[in-house]
Design goal:
152 residues; 3 helices; 29% strand; globular
């Protein structure tokens, strides 16, 4: 069962604060999907965010959506590397669990969305990587550099 995240309307505008990209939805957009699923997904996403902030990462954007894809969290580490984070949760490990649910097609969507996000920012593109925070039966598993853009 896929968990969909809920947008947080209380925070500052996080996606392209200076000049919104026409294809990017931010916190002002109406939430998608089932209300219960959004609540559950939002809780897992918040837990992942808290965990990453304890790892000394700064939140850059949350729920960045472009046509064809969404990035749950965009973080920055102390070296300036941008980390695109996909948060997945599964109650049971059947069908490979949360981490295995990120198919090649999902990876391609994440890469495409990340490229659109980077293109909308001014300046040179920083070093980037794709991490996955997977909740396997309630246990947080952090997969650093889970896949690469040239793999997807």
């Amino acid at each position: 069962m896929k968990q969909k995240t809920q947008t947080d309307r209380t925070g500052p505008p996080l996606c392209h604060a200076a000049r919104p990209h026409p294809e990017c939805r931010t916190h002002a957009s109406p939430p998608l999907g089932n209300t219960r699923a959004r609540r559950i997904g939002s809780a897992f996403e918040q837990h992942a965010l808290t965990f990453l902030q304890r790892q000394r990462m700064a939140l850059i954007a949350r729920n960045v959506v472009y046509r064809g894809g969404e990035i749950d969290l965009v973080m920055e580490d102390a070296s300036g590397t941008l980390i695109f984070v996909e948060v997945r949760a599964r109650a049971k490990r059947q069908h490979g669990g949360a981490a295995a649910s990120i198919s090649g097609i999902k990876q391609q969507r994440l890469v495409r969305t990340a490229l659109q996000y980077l293109a909308s920012r001014s300046g040179a593109a920083p070093a980037c990587r794709f991490d996955v925070i997977a909740f396997e039966a309630g246990r947080l598993v952090w997969l650093r550099d889970a896949f690469r853009a040239d793999d997807a």
